[in-house]
Amino acid sequence: MHAESANTTSRLLAHNLKGTKMKLRNVVVLMVGGLLVGTGAATSQTEGCRTDMSVIECVRRVAEIARGFDDQVKAVYSEITRKELPVGTVITSILPPEEFLNDKNPQFDNSRWVPADGRALPANSIYQKLTSKAYAPDLRKTSQQKIVLDVVEGVAEAGQVVDQLKTPQFADSDWRFHFAPRTVQGSRANNDVEQDTDQFEVLVDGGKIVAHGRTLNWKHNVWGPWSNGNTNYVGIATVASPFFYYVKVN
Fold first, then answer.
1. CA distance 113 to 250
2. 8 Å CB contact between 238 and 151
3. Contact status, residue 190 vs residue 142, Cβ threshold 8 Å
4. What are the pLDDT digits (tens) for 93-125?
5. Does the pLDDT of residue 13 top 90, yes or no?
6. Residue by residue, what is the 3-state secondary structure of the chain?
7. 58: buried, middle or exposed (CB in 10 Å: 19+, 13-18, 0-12)?
8. What is the pLDDT of residue 4?
9. Which of 99, 93, 142 is nearest to 117 (CA)?
10. Backbone angles phi and psi of 214, in degrees to 5
11. Quick count: other Cβ atoms within 10 Å of Cβ 104?
12. Which backbone phi and psi does 114 adopt, to 5 degrees?
């Protein structure tokens, strides 16, 4: 009984080992077939990895076939290098450096891209060799400037609400308005001939436009009442730049 049990175990082990070799060999055959078909080079070479081969023989055959693609791989690498973004290229990203140069970013590589903030370059970088500069360009002022979204201009009446001058699509942006008198006249206190210089005011008070003028009677030191008019205006809508700049150094 013991001898029969031992023989049975040996047969099972041999069967399992054979199955494992078959699986490995099948995987290798599939890999080779996929490689050849994927590169458009499927030929009778695929027959070189036969099902009756051992795994080692099949792997050896794969290596022989792979060497045949060496020139093609070199050509592809050369073409990729030639068409790659050149050193000195500056790109923008909404990701700050701690996110852009993070290993969770698929394109993470802080030896090739560095923030354009004047920091020291990686040692022996191509950028340094080309420019003889030890530091990256500093574009922080550019990233801190505001972006103009819209510009409006026209004539506004005294008492008009300033928010009505904004374009609806950019109403929530940062607006700056500039006003200048258009039709604003002085107003006398009386009919005396002796008058001083007219005074004009154009400003915003409580969200409304103030555009008026009055005149001083210097003889009696009396101001005339304010007289409303209108104003020329220019409004500029801006937003803070959301971009960070990075330069390619290798």
1. 7
2. no
3. no
4. 899 988 888 888 877 777 789 999 999 998 889
5. no
6. CHHHHHHHHHHHHHHHHHHHHHHHHHHHHHHHHHHHHHCCCCCHHHHHCCCCCCHHHHHHHHHHHHHHCHHHHHHHHHHHHHHCCCCCCEEEECCCHHHHCCCCCCCCCCCCEEECECCECCCCCHHHHHHCCCECCECHHHHHCEEEEEEEEEEEECCCEHHHHCCHHHCCCEEEEEEEEEECCCCCCCCCCCCCCEEEEEEEECCEEEEEEEEEECCCCEECCCEECEEEEEEEEEEECCCEEEEECC
7. buried
8. 52
9. 142
10. -155, 165
11. 6
12. -135, 150
CB atoms within 10 A of CB 241: 15
What are the φ/ψ torsions at residue 85 (nearest 5 degrees)?
-55, 130
pTM: 0.53
Find the mean pLDDT for residues 62-68: 74
